[in-house]
Amino acid sequence: MLDASIRRRIASVNGVDLHLLEAGEPGAPLVVLAHGFPEGAHSWRHQLPALAAAGYHAVAPDQRGYGRSSRPSDVAGYGIRELSGDLVALIDEAGAEPATIVGHDWGAMIVWDTAQLHPERVRAVVGVSVPFVHWPMPPTQLMKMVAGDRFLYILYFQPVGPAEAELEADPRTTMAKVLWSASGKGFPGADALGDPPPMEGTGFLTNMPEPPALPYDGPEGPWLSAEDLDEYTEAFTTSGFFGPLSYYRNLDANSAVMTGYGPERVSMPSFFIGGEADVVLVMDPSGLERMTALPDFRGSHLIPGAGHWIQQEAPDAFNAALLGFLATLP
């Protein structure tokens, strides 16, 4: 059950309707929370009341393509100009001065790019799980060079159809497996990963372990309940996976948009929060060091025992790190 301080509404911005969870008083310093794949506004359920209690106005949308929000029918509708435009439009709709934007997973990629595309609207930026990256070539070209004929989920997601069919066959099983396998307790660790299977005949869920009974356990105790899984199941039963998968289908187009930008554009205060057991940091071991190129990078905070779903698995530690960073802002 959501905290009583959290409100729901629909915001009509940037040509789409976005379902929002929000908390705190409008007019207070604004914090916009952008979720990752496959999540939704519900993933920020622990941060919204904590931010409100600390004096912020916090807004977390189901981003376009997710849950109760609008679902454009074309792949190009999920490009970075559209996704960053949604966040900026939410800032404008709130009547706010430049806002702090916080993004997890895909949301991290969106907020890093939004900070470059719209620096005048961004007070500060926090990446969660996914470090800042500036691609040296089209991302899928680089991934094909690295993966060869082995399975890489981002390449599997590129064609429209196969991944949708797999993930939509049973949204509850999809979400149960994905949320467990990338959690701190579910991720087997870098040493146990082994070589990826062949691309041919492999799906996103193929080699994910069967999850344990709910609730899932994390570094601070149970973090995913049957009620939480019900929320995700309903959201993806409603939205399907075309929109969420189409974020990945815009990686090369987004890279082209961002070619003329770079780390020097992220001139506002920046911060990173990650989990020590996050598979993303295993796949991108140079990510933490790479962010030192940001002009006002204020460091990284890694939470022991937490995996990819860090703000859900370790909400107390996450909130302490986020609020600590926010307290340093002028």
Q: Can you walk me through this structure?
A:
The protein is α/β, with parallel strands linked by helices and 330 residues long. It is globular, with a radius of gyration of 18 Å. Helix 3 links the parallel strand 5 and strand 6. Helices cover 35% and strands 18% of the residues. The two termini are 35 Å apart. The chain has a single domain, classed as Alpha/Beta hydrolase fold, catalytic domain (Rossmann fold), CATH 3.40.50. The longest helix is centred in the first third of the chain and has 14 residues. The strands form two sheets. The chain has an eight-stranded mixed β-sheet with strand order 1-2-4-3-5-6-9-10, with helices on both faces. Strands 7-8 form a two-stranded antiparallel ribbon.
Instruction: Name the CATH architecture.
Output: 3-Layer(aba) Sandwich
Total DSSP helices:
14
Number of strands: 10
C-alpha end-to-end distance: 35 Å
Our count of domains comes out at: 1
Q: What is the CATH H-level superfamily?
A: Alpha/Beta hydrolase fold, catalytic domain
CATH topology: Rossmann fold
CATH top level is Alpha Beta
Strand order within the widest sheet?
1-2-4-3-5-6-9-10
